[in-house]
Amino acid sequence: MNNFKTLSPYLRLHRNQYIVGTLAVLGANAAVLLPAYFIGRAIDGLRLFADGNPATPGLTLMQLALLALGVILATVLSGSLMVVVRRSIVFASRQTEYEIRRDLFAHLSGLDKHYFDRARTGDLMNRLTGDLSAVREMIGFGSWQVATVISSFVVSFAWFFSINWRLTLAVLVVFPVIIGVLMYLSRQVSLRYVPMQEQNSAISAKAQENFSGARVVKGYAIEDREIAEYKVMNTELIRRALFLNRVEGPLFAFMSLLMGVAYVLVLLYGGRMILGLVPGSPLTLGQFTQFTLTLERLAWPMLSIGMIANMLQRGMGSWARLQEIFAARARVHDGGRTDPTIHTLQGDIRYEDVSLTFEGRRVLDHVTLHIPAGQTLGITGPTGSGKTVLSQLITRLTDVSEGSIKVDGHDVRSIPVRTLRENIAVVPQEPFLFSDTIASNVAFGLDNDHYQPIETLKSVRHTTPPEARDVPPDMDRVRRAAEIAGLAGEVDRFPLGYDTMLGERGVTLSGGQRQRTALARAVARDPRILILDDSMSAVDTETESRILQGLRTVQEGRTVLLIGHRVSTLRHADHIIVMDAGRIVEQGSHDELLAAGGHYADLERKQRLESDLDDTDETAIADAAPTRPTPAQPAPQPAPQEVKR
Ligand SMILES: Nc1ncnc2c1ncn2[C@@H]1O[C@H](COP(=O)(O)OP(=O)(O)OP(=O)(O)O)[C@@H](O)[C@H]1O
């Protein structure tokens, strides 16, 4: 019931369509029973005519023709009303489906990292498709059929009672059985349906992860294992689906049996009435015919009761699963302390005694730090030491557990989330590219001002669809950003240049190209604060130094957080911090840290040694190489520019 309450606001958006549709169903089901009445009248009239009794002359040819016309008109009327039903209820259900899908997407887009850290894409996709379809079927075809069953029964029994109440009571004998069976069925379906949908979700998630991770699956040659696991999951789905179907199968047969019982009762009891064997309850042949024809019309509604109960249970089960999405709340959002007057930021960042705890585990521990606007902070430290989460706190991907972070003196929790994020560009450790052109990927963060948040719970019939905006990317900006990110040269060599289409998540680019496309995207945004999270790990040191040089030209007045493991990345930063186990364990300039002889100095020494060793190896190879390659010894290839992922 609770679930129905949450669905009703959507149904109310199309109240008139559902009311018109329901009235049309009622009308159609009343009209469809009129032919039985006309035929009954005709039979009685003809029988009297056949008797040849002048006192009861029976039916004239004109009356017979009128009754025949009545049959035709009633059929046309019920057919026309069915068209109205389709155009109202079925249309309304499609529109409701659209509105729920639109609102679900908007709601999901408003959820934060905490939700998506745990959600499985395949499961969400299954809810947005399979579950939403089940809800649409329930409110469309399902509600239509409910109205059909109710109106068929009401109108039929009205006729039955008007013909003969005793015969009607005989038919009613089967109804307690029907109600009992229905209650049992509804309970069974609701118990069995949700586990089946959960398995559907698990299968979708498995398929989605396999397709997204196809390179890993193939790289480890574990296709057969994955296929076997998929098969097991499918077998389980079939088992659960059959378990559900097992309730429905016998039901159809059972309802047919009950229908047969009703016919037998009418035949035996009605027949006795026609023969005059039931005192005080006469029945004419025409009335008997009308009774049986009306009963015949009840066959489909009766047989479909099981299917409808099933559809409603599935729909409500699916709606409950969609409700779980609507019930999820973003932990990070604008609230009472948000100051809407903050529109611009300069980029002065202060961490004041910041701690962060994830599921009882402290990942940042009393961090205090000041990054003046326009300065570059280098962040390094062992893996898992808290570098990424430290930077994520500025964009409020997650909020501090203790202490505060201030940008330009404002606590980040008081800056409107949109303003905050519009002023920051992040190049994450694992860049995400869209299956679009390189130009569109670089320009992804631009052209964001024309869109307003959508109004939810609003009828699609009263909203004008947003104008299709196919704004071409600002190519000057795209090229400049690509130049700075060290990507331009390679893109110019692609046959389609910036119009090159990327595969899903940019898989058709090398790891380094992907990183630099993501970097270009961030630079194109022209942010006040730029966060580069280990975002040059897949490019060689030479390219990296070119990119850093390019960045320095646009860095003026921009605050940059540069996370990295290479001293070459960090050495030009104004200030460098070394993190360990969520704490800042060293800080200072490159020279100060080298002089301090701690972790940073160690790192520098190791990387210098490695680089010296590489140089020595290369010289040795060059010395040993013949001056001219023979066919058997191909010329040494240049070192790969980038680490392929
Ligand atoms: N969403 C999360 N839920 C729970 N723990 C998390 C989450 N994100 C990060 N952590 C934990 O926080 C700690 C710091 O992670 P972080 O990603 O900041 O490390 P890092 O220093 O950037 O490491 P790396 O150099 O490997 O990228 C890790 O122990 C990690 O397991």
Automatic annotation (TrEMBL):
Protein name: ABC transporter ATP-binding protein
Domain ABC transporter: 349-606
GO cellular component terms, A-Z: plasma membrane
SUPFAM superfamilies: ABC transporter transmembrane region, P-loop containing nucleoside triphosphate hydrolases
GO molecular function annotations of the record: ABC-type transporter activity; ATP binding; ATP hydrolysis activity; ATPase-coupled lipid transmembrane transporter activity
Keyword Transmembrane: yes
Subcellular location: Cell membrane
Composition skew (Pro residues), residue ranges: 628-639
Recorded superkingdom: Bacteria
Xref: PROSITE patterns: ABC_TM1F, ABC_TRANSPORTER_2
Membrane-spanning ranges: 20-40, 60-85, 141-161, 167-186, 249-271
Keywords: ATP-binding, Cell membrane, Membrane, Nucleotide-binding, Transmembrane, Transmembrane helix, Transport
Biological classification of the source: Bacteria, Thermotogati, Deinococcota, Deinococci, Deinococcales
Bilayer disposition of the protein: Multi-pass membrane protein
Region (Disordered): 605-645
Stored InterPro entries: AAA+_ATPase, ABC1_TM_dom, ABC1_TM_sf, ABC_transporter-like_ATP-bd, P-loop_NTPase, Type_1_exporter
Domain ABC transmembrane type-1: residue ranges: 19-314
